[in-house]
Specification:
heterodimer, A: alpha/beta, TIM Barrel, 8-stranded parallel β-sheet, B: 476 residues, Aldehyde Dehydrogenase, Chain A, domain 1, Aldehyde Dehydrogenase, Chain A, domain 2, 2 domains, 6-stranded mixed β-sheet
Chain lengths: 327, 476
């Protein structure tokens, strides 16, 4: 399959005008092509019918494992839980050292230091949610302090939530400036910066048109990744809403030359689901996005299903859930 | 490393194709009276699938006579009884759908994804739908006790062999007619499997008769004295011949002929979904669809953006083995059809339209044509006027809605059209002005048994499907 290649047709500079004022931003976002819900869902469903077998399945399983942001975001999280999850992320399958490690461990800010220590030298990143996750209902200084705290504790990546209230009431520039401010708060003293993932909570934005607007808003504001959801509401990542994020990232790349990562999160539990998302990446964004630098799964239970399927492919037998670790 | 999909072929073992098949007359398979046979091949490999009896005039006589004998008792059955048979047929089709999907893919060349997800579900749905009408005819709006016509002579094309059979046979049986059906010469097998399903369902002898053969058998059937009703789906040229044949006779006729559907994309369209609709409109079934959206009319202001998106999408189409579950575009049905597509595409180039084909590797054997589009096409180009019946899209532009409507209607055909815009009022306004039997809004090639289907102008007359589809088989 040929990769999707595009040449920038309009620089980021031209898009800068779009964010000059609240009115300009509104005009730009509402001028984006609409989304036909029936057509979007039909396309996502069609891509879900691809039959991925044998060597392709083995490739997809390993790729999916390497793309997981292994997540624990519970009120009951403890240092012990984070350490055991980190151990799992470094070596997902103790019976097979060939198993790829996950992309990152995703925790609350107060657990970043623990995760960082547990993952030292492994290459597995530490991602931290921030900005009053998951509701995002806090004053901006609090959100920025939350972010700086996580970065200072060693977070490699920050998963922020947007202010859905501001977005839904049409205060786009406020959302834009908040993302900008958080992006600045991701900067480290040595001049490097944590990568910023912007969570839309697509289930709360409700319409596909809103989701597309939110994508462009975040990409213009400097998001490194766009992410569907927190995993804390009724509707999280779905194939159609993730496809929509991918189309936005594809179009943004065509317009600006800037590559943006995509992360569906919440509700992806099975190998079958994960493979469907990878097919979507392959046929929408192309192979340039097929690495954990540009695509992630936000998931907790997905990993064990991938490991069981991996064992099944390797040994020809399905061993069952007692042969993967519960962490 | 790229994500290469490993081959995922559907198993051929689910279908058992016998080396030879006879004609299905009066509930029995029999050889042609003169013993003639022809071969049917798999278009994707050119492998011979089976030898099939070639019906001659004596066989047409025998089939029509069998249908005539069966007509009395069949039409006298209470509607609810006829409905039972149709429900039974519908259920058997569902039960055997995997087998029939593989068979159809082998004989026709279309991808298994389409036969599995489109053809077979629609075939079963059509029988279920008309089964429901069988005992409700007096409520259909054609009088208190509408009567059937008698023996229906039906001739169907090769593009949707089993689906066209369903469109023809289901309403005919529901209304109490009996049937002699001739499938296309290149795709006879699924109709013969359907004959077996009729036996499995216990359908009385002679109610359905299947005659395989070429155009001569079709012509003999249409011209036969004993036929009361002619239903034809196929080319406009043959349709005109049939209209001449039946002119001045008692025969009632419905014709579903060619098309050159316009897919109109306005500048406020949902672009990504419009691209999918365009692809589905012209590359579904390799473009061998009478209602294909073979003319893309795009508003000038978004032409470049839309074409870039479309070409990028076409580059991801998977062309190849039709039995592979991941194949999007399969084989052209016959060498003859491939030659016609090739010739028309060459004419397009010779007349100055710019040709672009999706980068794809075509298999060495079989009949293949890469998904192709022509840009810089004007109304005067052959590729904008003639039905190509292949995976070839002609791209034209317009500036205003009036111009779009004028260009869309500027064709001798009038079967289908599509409108892409986010503005609901524009959909209604434009749809009202389009001279096409079916107008899709923000979608394309969507079918449902409840929806009537048929053409304006040289795309034919009469409607199939829905309540309207009953009328063609009733004496009203």
């Amino acid at each position: 399959m040929p990769s999707v290649t595009s040449t920038p047709t309009a620089g980021t500079a031209a898009l800068a005008d779009a964010t000059a004022s609240d009115a300009a931003l509104r005009r730009f976002l509402h001028g984006l092509p609409g989304v036909d819900a029936v057509g979007l869902e039909a396309r996502a469903a069609m891509l879900g019918t691809r039959s991925i077998k044998t060597t392709a399945k083995a490739y997809a399983i390993d790729l999916a494992i390497s793309m997981i942001d292994l997540t624990t975001l519970e009120g009951a999280d403890t240092a012990g839980k984070v350490r055991s999850l980190s151990a799992k992320g470094r070596r997902p399958d103790p019976t097979d050292p060939e198993t790829p490690k996950v992309a990152a461990i995703c925790v609350y800010p107060d657990m970043v230091a623990t995760a960082k220590e547990a993952l030292a030298g492994s290459g597995v990143k530490v991602a931290s949610v921030a900005t009053a996750f998951p509701a995002g209902r806090a004053a901006l200084p609090v959100k920025l302090a939350d972010t700086r705290d996580a970065v200072a504790a060693g977070a490699d990546e920050i998963d922020m939530v947007i202010d859905r209230g501001a977005f839904l009431s049409g205060r786009y520039l406020q959302v834009f400036e908040e993302i900008r401010a958080v992006k600045e708060a991701c900067a480290r003293e040595d001049g490097s910066a944590a990568r910023l993932k912007v969570i839309f909570e697509t289930g709360e934005l409700s319409t596909y048109d809103n989701i597309r607007r939110a994508c462009w808003l975040a990409m213009l504001a400097g998001a490194d990744f766009i992410k569907t959801s927190t995993g804390k509401v009724g509707v999280n990542a779905t194939p159609p809403n993730t496809l929509l994020l991918m189309e936005a990232a594809r179009d943004f790349h065509a317009a600006t030359g800037t590559r943006i990562g995509v992360k569906p999160a919440g509700g992806i539990r099975t190998t079958k689901d994960a493979v469907k998302y990878l097919v979507m990446v392959n046929e929408t964004l192309g192979e340039d996005w097929l690495s954990n630098e540009w695509f992630r799964f936000g998931a907790s239970s997905l990993l064990n299903d991938l490991l069981m399927q991996r064992q099944k492919l390797r040994t020809g037998r399905y061993s069952g859930p007692d042969y993967v670790t519960v962490d | 490393m790229a994500f290469e999909y490993a081959p995922a072929p559907e198993s051929r073992a689910v279908v058992d194709i016998r080396p030879t098949y006879g004609l299905f007359i009066d509930g029995e398979f029999r050889d042609a009276a003169d013993g003639k046979v022809f071969k049917t091949v798999s278009p994707s490999t050119e492998e011979v699938l089976a030898e099939v009896a070639d019906a001659g005039a004596a066989d047409v006589d025998a089939a029509v006579a069998a249908a005539r004998r069966a007509f009395g008792p069949w039409s006298a059955l209470p509607g609810a009884e006829r409905g039972k048979y149709l429900y039974r047929i519908a259920r058997i089709i569902q039960e055997r759908s995997r087998e029939l999907a593989v068979l159809e893919t082998l004989d026709n060349g279309k991808p298994i994804r389409e036969t599995r997800d489109a053809d077979l579900p629609l075939v079963a749905a059509h029988f279920f739908y008309y089964a429901g009408w069988a005992d409700k005819l007096k409520h259909a709006g054609f009088g208190p006790e509408p009567r059937p016509l008698g023996v229906a002579g039906q001739v169907i094309p090769w593009n949707f062999p089993l689906l066209m059979l369903a469109w023809k046979i289901a309403p005919a049986l529901a209304t109490g007619n009996t049937v002699v059906l001739k499938p296309a010469e290149t795709t006879p097998l699924s109709a013969l499997f359907f004959a077996d399903i009729c036996r499995q369902a216990g359908l009385p002898k002679g109610v359905v008769n299947i005659l395989t053969g070429d155009g001569r058998a079709g012509a003999a059937l249409v011209a036969h004295e004993g036929v009361d009703k002619v239903a034809f789906t196929g080319s406009t040229a043959v349709g005109k011949e049939i209209a001449r044949t039946v002119a001045g006779t008692r025969k009632k006729v419905t014709l579903e002929l060619g098309g050159k559907g316009a897919n109109i994309v306005f500048d406020d369209a949902p672009i990504d979904q419009a691209v999918e609709g365009i692809v589905n409109g012209i590359f579904f079934n390799q473009g061998q669809v009478c209602c294909a959206g073979s003319r893309l009319l795009v508003q000038e202001s978004i032409q470049d953006e839309l074409l870039d998106s479309l070409k990028r999408r076409l580059a991801t189409l998977r062309v190849g083995d039709p039995l592979d579950k991941n194949t999007d575009v399969g084989a052209i049905n016959s060498a003859e059809q491939l030659a016609r597509i090739t010739a028309l595409a060459e004419t397009g180039e010779a007349e100055g339209a710019e040709r672009w084909s999706a980068p794809c590797e075509l298999p060495d054997s079989g009949y293949w044509f890469a998904p192709t589009l022509f840009t810089g096409v004007s109304q005067a180009h052959t590729v904008a006027r003639e039905e190509i019946f292949g995976p070839v899209l002609s791209v034209l532009t317009f500036r205003t809605p009036d111009e779009a409507v004028a260009k869309a209607n500027n064709t001798p055909y009038g079967l289908s059209a599509g409108i892409w815009t986010e503005k609901g009022s524009r959909i209604l306004a434009v749809a009202n002005k389009l001279r096409a039997g079916v107008v899709w809004a923000n979608t394309f090639n969507k079918f449902d048994p409840t929806s009537p289907f048929g053409g304006y102008k040289e795309s034919g007359s009469g409607r199939e499907g829905g309540r309207h589809g009953l009328e063609a088989y009733l004496d009203v």
